[in-house]
Write a structure and sequence with these properties.
Strand content: 15-25%
Structural class: alpha/beta
CATH architecture of the largest domain: Alpha-Beta Barrel
Radius of gyration: 30 Å
CATH class of the largest domain: Alpha Beta
Largest sheet: 8 strands, mixed
Bound molecules: zinc ion
Oligomer: single chain
Distance between the termini: 61 Å
Number of helices: 17
CATH topology of the largest domain: TIM Barrel
Number of strands: 16
Helix content: 25-40%
Amino acid sequence: MTGDSFFITNVHLAYSDPSLESKLWSVECHKGKVVNVTSYIKEEPSSTKCELDAGGGVLLPSLCHSHIHLDKCFILDRCDLISGYEAKIPSVYTAQPRSYSSSRDFKEAMKVTGSAKAGFSLDKEDLLRRGLKLIRESVECGVTSMRAHIEVDVQAGFSGLDVALHLKEEVRLACHVQIAVFAQEPLFSSAEDTDPGPNFHLLVQAVRRPGVEVIGSAPYVEPTIEQAKKNIALIFELASRSSITLIDFHLDYNLNPNSEPLIYEVIKQARNFCNSWKADSSKLFRRRITIGHATRLQLFTPEEWRHLQDAIRDLPITFVGLPNSDMYMQGRSQANQPLGAPRSTLRVPYLSDKYDLQIAMSVNNVENAFTPQGSVDPLALCTFGAAVFQAATKTDIQILTKAVTITSKVAIGQTNVPLDLFPQPGDTADFVILHGIRTLRQAVLNPPHNRTTIRNGIIVACRRTRRWSAVQKLHVPQTITPISWWWYMLFPICWPCLLINWVSEPRKSHLGTVILFIRVHID
Ligand SMILES: [Zn+2]
C-alpha cells in the first residue's frame, strides 16, 4: 500500500504474551488507521516509503487527559498558600456541622484561585499562553485528546471559554481538546436559596456555544446537601435541553464516613436521563457520565462496593481518580497522627480488577493551589500509582497503563478507542512511542523522556533530551595477569622454534597459536 501509508518499524508492542512482547514489529498505517502489524525485517531505507524507525522503543496507544483544568494551570506564582484559612464546613459533608479544619486548605485553594480567576478577563493573552503551554507540553508527552474543564461563573465570566474555544481550533491537528464548561463555584448563592443564582445562568449561556461538548459541576461546593442534589439535577436537565450527552461531576471529594455518598443521587437521576436518551438513537451511543475524585468511596466495605457495582449495572458511568490532587489536598487537620494525614485516591488496579469498574486516572491540575506539584505527563501517574496502590504485577501495569490511555478515552466519550494496548487493524493510528526502553513495565515504572507522538497517522510531536555529562562512557580496566615464572624459561626456546616452524612449513604454523592458547588458559 502506498500513497498515504506510514510505517512505524523496529518497535516493541505491549503484548501480554512475553514471546510477542520481546519481538520487534512493523505497524503499517493508511489514512490514519492501522492496516497491518507484521514482524520487523530490517530493510535498506527507501526514499519512496514514509517510515519512522522507532529504534526498538515501545509503542502504546496515545495518552489522554480525561480530566484537566486548562484555565487555571500554571498560576501558582499568583496564589499565596498560607494554609490558615478557616471556615464552617458545609452540611453537605456531614450530618453534624463541625469545624471546617479538615478541608480548610481546600477552602484556601478556592479562595486564592478565585482571586486569580477574577483577573482572567483582564489578561486573555495570559490565559492563551498558559493554555497553549499545557496543550503543547501534553502533546509532547504523548497526549492526543483531553477533556479540558473551563470554569464559567461570575468571577471568570466567559474569558476562559473564549480562549479555550480558540485554542481548540488552533491545535486541532495535534490534539482533540474537548471542552467541558464547568461550575466549580456553587450554583446556589446561599443556603437559603431555592433557585439557582447567576453562576447557573452563565452556565446555561455557555452550553449554547458551538464547540462545547460537556457540562460539569462540583456539587460538593454547595452550601447544603439538598442544594448539592439540586445541582446534580440542574446539570442533567441542562444536558437534556441541549444536544450534549457528556456529563462530568467532581463528586464525593472527602474522606468523611458520616457524609452521604452522592454517587447514588447521580445514579438515580442518570437512570431517568438515560431512559430519555433511549428514545434518541443519535444520543444513545455517545452518552457518558464521568465522576471525578470520588475519594469518599474509598471508605466503602466490600459489600458497599458490590452494592454500587449492582446499582451502576449498564449505566455508562466511568470514574476518574485524580491522585496528584487527592493526595495533596486531604487529611491536613490530622497530620499529627502517627502515620501522618489520612489520604486516599481511588485504587485503580484493585477496584478495576475486583469490581469490574471503569476507573481512569488523570492529572487534574498543574501548578496551582489545588495541586502545586507534578507535571502534565499522564504516565507519571502510573509510576506514582505503582507506589500508592502497591501495584507492580503484570496485571497492575496493564490496568495502570489503560487508565491513562484506553479507559481515559472511554471516560471522555471518545468513540475511536482501541481494544487493547497493542495495535490491531482498524485502530485509529494515535500512538506514543517511548524511546530507549523495551517493555511496558519500564514505560510505567520509569517512563523515558524521549517520545514521539502520532495522531491520525501523522507525527505531531517529538521530544528528545540533549545530554552531556562529565561522567563519560564507563571505562572497564582490563586485568593484566602477571606472567608465570616458568613462561620466561620457555621464552628463549619457543619463539625461535615458532619462527623456524613458520618459515619452513607455514601451513603447520598453528603450533604458535596452540602454544599461546595454552598460555592464556593456564594463566
Ligand atoms: Zn478537577
